[in-house]
Amino acid sequence: MLNLCARIRRPLLASSHCSFRISCNLNTSSHPPQVPQPVDNECNDFLPWLRHKYGAEFTSHLSIGKSGYGRSLFACKPIQAGDCMLKVPDCLELTQDNLPPKVSSLLGKDVGNKAKLALVILLHQKLGQASEWAPYISCLPPVEEMHNTIFWSDEELEMIKPSSYLYNETLKHKDQVEKKFSSIQHVLDNFPEYFEHVTLHKFKHAHALVESRAWVGRRSATLVPFVEFFNHDAFSKTEILYDDSAQILQYIASKNYAPGDEVLIKYGKIPNAELLLHFGFTIPFNRYNMVQVEINLPQHDQLREMKLDLLNKHTTLPLKDANKLHSRGIRYMVKEVKSSSGKGRGIPQELRTFARVVCCTSPKELQDLALEATQNDGRLTRIPLKNRARELEAHQFLNLKFNNMIENCNAALESLTRHSSLLLSGNNTRRMHLARDLLGGELHILISASAWLKNYCETLKD
Prior knowledge:
Blueprint: E1 2-3, E2 6-7, E3 37-38, H1 46-54, E4 62-67, E5 70-75, E6 84-89, E7 94-95, H2 101-104, H3 113-127, H4 134-137, H5 154-157, H6 164-190, H7 192-195, H8 200-213, E8 215-216, E9 221-223, E10 231-232, E11 239-243, E12 248-252, E13 264-265, H9 272-278, E14 291-295, H10 304-313, H11 322-328, E15 330-334, H12 349-358, H13 363-375, H14 388-420, H15 427-461
Parallel strand pairs: 10-13
Antiparallel strand pairs: 1-11, 2-8, 3-4, 4-5, 6-12, 7-9, 8-9, 11-12, 14-15
Helix pairs in contact: 3-8, 6-9, 12-14, 14-15
């Protein structure tokens, strides 16, 4: 047996700890899990259909129920670590190969796997009960239950604007999906029997379903029924293996479960910004959270060109285009700094190096940095500057940046608190909770980084 594939967005690399997406009915941290309830009526035909399609019982360990997170999978009998909880044969995979050949032949090379699989969903939605996949397609969540930021209104996106990474990525993602829709418009027009009345909004919904569920398997992007209901646990180590001889995916438990326990699987090391962008949920106290910090060289700096040249020659960052730096600055991802008295792990060394370059005030200082880089491994200094005053200035510069971000984040959270009483129900309330979870997690990181910088600056004054 060999380790399977990964999600469509994110290769698994060498890890064996795979996982599927959580149900899009996920609640935020403001809504605690509940005792499992019977599955809703819309899935009544789902399990019999799976058994008929497979021709055998594919799991005797798991059942579908409902928790505070929406649909989920629960142990229906004791499960021991190492047990195979679920077997999924190839015949239960929905891929781009399910498109009629006459449709596939019109798709250009610029149409990717996700767009093709979105067309598969749209086709089977059009077929309705005539589709052999109807019981599965009918269980996919409607757009009203999806909270991926691509579905947020401009007003709702303002709530997450302080999270510049997610805000900018959402705008970029919307533009990319619109371009994909344009690239398949001729196919929609040529086959009204399959795609009549498919609008950008419907395509966006189908594309988001693929993006939040599909895997890149041995062949291409793949949707696999039933595993839709696995919820996410960042600590789960459940293994997903592929048996070549039997052509079956096997889900191996990493711990013991008692009857009634919710069975959880790990997505990956994904921060809340990515979870919200692609899956439409956040998790509290997400240890993989990161904050994007954008930093610029001042336009009025007389040494600006020398600094740009130095950074281009002696940095691992993608600074080949100085105009990119000129217009947008450089963006770094910062993680939580666990200890204010440690080494500052979580704040990228490259960010601290950039601050040291910014604070240089003479050509001689820049030349010394270049010489040191050349004499070592070619990278700019990753150790404190010999000039303690300049080292202090560089880190005070950074701390000022973090403090400004903290102020903006606090202001946004206060605004959400003030306006929460005006929204009594519906998507606005859910998305306000999601925005609060996102910004609260990022604020925690910013405060931890600022605390370390403040402490480091104090040591430089001694």
